[in-house]
# Entry
Amino acid sequence: MFIAHIPAGYLVASWLHKRGVVAGGLFAACIIGSVFPDIDLLYFYLIDGKSHHHHSYWIHYPVLWLSLSLLSAAWYILSGRRTAALLALAFCANAFLHIMLDGIVGDIWLFAPWIDRHYALATVSPGFSPWWLNFILHWSFLFELLITGLAASIWTRRNKLRRTIVPQSKDRP
Ligand SMILES: [Zn+2]
# Structure
């Protein structure tokens, strides 16, 4: 997935907010979590010398983020719904969603560390150069455009709404 991770995190945060989940930092937790696993690209380029697929690093293991999401959910319930636990859950669940979205065409190590094999929902055939053009011309990129377009339209609507609400609240005595 190229462009839709952050928009996907924004959509999750908007969805939660619309359902009454309100907490300072909720949008930030969802959005940062939605892109956080790709921090391993620093290791991939600067240390590993591009010698392994970055999805094979432990930070891209689904079980890591699924476990952390479950632990955060338990913390949230047992702590009497503490905001910190909610933000941890939002962060980890969005990181898990990141891995699942990567798995549409991006080869993920679904059962790592137990099975060293990668899976993808669809295969992108090589044919164009540079390599990333193959992904952009693949049908799955329409899905990315759909997520991004939806997030952009919600963001625009929310901003428009905020601009109309703020002047009214300033007018109050
Ligand atoms: Zn990724």
